[in-house]
Hints:
With 152 residues, the protein is an alpha+beta fold.
Amino acid sequence: MKHLFITLLLFISLPAIARTQQQDTIFHLEIHQVISPGFHSCNFVVAGGKLRIYQHVYNKRLHKFQPKKVYTTTISNELENEIINTCAKLYSLEDSYIKPILDGSSWDITIIRNNRSKRVKIDNYEVKEVDALFSHINTAIKKGKPKLSLTK
């Protein structure tokens, strides 16, 4: 009887455990980087075990900038976990870090994990926690493709 009870308890609990594990895998990171002068603008997206990079290219016909995918790669589970763990540290950051300078670099970082989101805006400001994240992401980008500039 005791074994039957334990078996039933496990059988009832398994869907809840599976849902919990599935929710833990929801992760989306998007980084918009603008480097001035020259207005070099890129989006870096990490989601679903992939890294995608989009450059913003001016469309003369539409008279506006549009994203163009320039690179996609699969990232290892180990690297994805490093990125996720580094992102977890960013939840304690302020929402913005700004030094009012005409030219320079800016980043808009959006993290979504388990229905919890964080957005950090950085303009010409050094944030070491963000540099650690950028360094992890840059390891997955092959030579000749756009990389994330460090905030320092």
